[in-house]
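[09:14] KT: can someone run the structure on this one? pasting the chain below
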Amino acid sequence: MQILEIPIKPVPSQKLSVMLGEQNTTIELAWRSNRLYATVRVGKTDMVCSRLCLNREPIVREQYRSFVGELYFDDQQGNQAPEFSGLGSRYKLFWVTK
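[09:31] RB: done, structure tokens below
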């Protein structure tokens, strides 16, 4: 098993490019209506678009999407859905492989 913390900033909107295994991955985080949403792409292929981010819930979820591993947020102080001001400190983003 491999676990990688993806560095994120406490801002309402951000776009990250990161190599996850052999996958050239783009992650876009957007704060809308008091909720955090994620869009994940590998190359030019969308894995998920505007998926609601919850604590310890897989972001990509569907195994048929050919995304290796899984992305999820972890609340370091409880069991709350992530909110932008705590990104990178209270709410950490991880990529995990089996």
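[09:33] KT: thanks! The mean pLDDT is 96.
[09:34] RB: yep, looked fine to me
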